[in-house]
Specification:
The chain is an alpha+beta fold and 90 residues long. Helices cover 42% and strands 17% of the residues. It has a domain of 58 residues. It has a three-stranded antiparallel beta sheet with strand order 1-2-3. A hairpin with a 2-residue loop joins strand 2 and strand 3.
């Protein structure tokens, strides 16, 4: 069930437990209008800021948890760094 509230000049849209502010919605519209849905300048800024926030050298945004898990598995079997052996369990 979708619930929409307007509180203190902010628009909140609730679908389950997720909420989006008016600013979130406007930023989403801005991205859509730029016709650059993936890997935009906004994404690059977010990745840089997130890496800095968590104290990492790099951060990479992906489209889903499944993609994140796949990248993590590839990182563990990276031939340049032996983090995971052939018979190790994930």
């Amino acid at each position: 069930m979708l619930r929409i509230y307007f509180v203190n000049s902010l628009l909140y849209i609730f679908k389950g437990l997720k909420a989006f502010s008016l600013n979130d919605i406007l930023n989403g519209i801005k991205v859509l209008l730029n016709n650059q849905i993936t890997m935009s300048e906004i994404t690059e800024k977010f990745q840089y800021g997130f890496a800095k926030y968590v104290g990492a050298k790099y951060a990479l945004m992906v489209n889903s948890g499944s993609s994140a898990n796949l990248l993590a598995a590839f990182a563990l079997v990276n031939p340049r760094k032996k983090n995971l052996l052939t018979l190790d369990k994930l």
